[in-house]
Amino acid sequence: MAYIIEFAAGAERAFRKLPGRLQARSRPHIDALAGEPRPVAQSRSRGKEASIASGWATTE
What pTM did the predictor assign? Predict the structure, then answer.
């Protein structure tokens, strides 16, 4: 199943403010979430971040 990665407006603005080198380094990892939203090495999120993270990937 393929997913679409969407940023909340504030997260997108924050990402664009990152230095280009950091954006370029992060982008392949973010894009990889479209194919596998729960990578093997990922630990289960807890707390407020868990509710935010669960809304990032939506089914296509």
Answer: 0.56
